[in-house]
Amino acid sequence: MADELLRASGLESGYGGVQVLWGADIAVAAGETVVLLGANGAGKTTLLRVLMGLMPAWRGTITLDGAAVTHETTDQRVRRGVAYMSELGVFPDMTIADNLRIGSRFAPRAARAAAIDALYARFPDLAGKRRSLAGSLSGGQRKMLGIAKALAGRPRLLVMDEPSAGLSPLYVAEVLAVLGRFRAEGLALLIAEQNVAFLDLADRVCTLERGRTVFTGTTAELHANDALERAYFGLT
Ligand code: ATP
After folding, report:
1. Is 135 touching ligand 1 by the criterion CB < 6 Å?
2. Which of 191, 145, 196, 195 is nearest to 166 (CA)?
3. How far, in Å, CA of 186 to CA of 33, rounded?
4. Is the distance from the beta carbon of residue 41 to the nearest atom of ligand 1 less than 6 Å?
5. Residues 74-81: what's their mean pLDDT?
6. What is the pLDDT of residue 234?
7. How many A from CA of 43 to the centre of ligand 1?
8. What are the pLDDT digits (tens) for 37-66?
9. Which residue spans within the chain are E strands per DSSP?
10. pLDDT of residue 179
């Protein structure tokens, strides 16, 4: 793959004695958007956590820019330009400014203030509330703060776990629009979702079933596959 940023092959992992990933493969090129689809419990969150080093890979390999990072810490991976936004995404007991400061900690020191100012310019709702607690924001604004916090470290790849979770369709559309703008500026995205609206952003789609990658291709190729079309779009 040209300009390969992230690649994971044959990942296996789980919790205690319970294996959840049974051979997950995923790759993201520079500037590419990959949507990871899968039903509840398919292992999407687990896969993202293993990619970020928040859980160990029992088997398999992970590379960033071609370098093996399978045994690197989360911090080391973040320093290589990957940011992670969990479903929660922010620290509710901290101010918006402090959330962004934490998000920027892996950017070069001299670039941090400028990175945060640039984000306030992009998210004016947050700029007006910098001393407010993140927990006082609406669900939609909190999601925007989660995105801003992840981007404050100036990543090249943003890994997101279900950005649509808990959001009304209106806010989902807003999140999609915001992500679309950063995507157009060259940010690579890996988004685990159940909401097929996110396919509008996707250059490629991966589907995970019971901890295995069963399909990788374009959205058009997904639509052309009858079984997957039925599984993800509920068509009969
Ligand atoms: P969801 O959309 O519901 O988050 P998912 O595809 O992200 O689903 P995971 O959260 O990765 O799936 O969960 C995969 C499996 O691992 C599920 O069977 C789940 O019950 C199990 N699991 C998740 N977290 C833990 C945990 N901390 N301890 C034990 N089992 C867990």
Report:
1. no
2. 195
3. 10
4. yes
5. 95
6. 63
7. 6
8. 998 899 999 999 999 999 999 999 999 999
9. 4-15, 18-29, 33-37, 59-64, 67-68, 82-85, 157-161, 188-193, 204-209, 212-217
10. 96
Instruction: Reply yes or no on whether the pLDDT at 236 is more than 50.
Output: no
What's the CA-to-centroid distance between 121 and ligand 1, angstroms?
37
What is the pTM (predicted TM-score) of this model? 0.93
**Superfamily designation of domain 1-81+156-236:** P-loop containing nucleotide triphosphate hydrolases (3.40.50.300)
Q: Which of 11, 19, 46 to mutate to test the pocket of ligand 1 (most atoms within 8 A of CB)?
A: 46
Q: Is 15 in the pocket of ligand 1 (CB under 6 A)?
A: yes
Query: Does residue 46 have its Cβ closer than 6 Å to ligand 1?
Result: yes
Domain residue extents for the chain:
1-81+156-236, 91-154
- Residue 97's pLDDT is 96
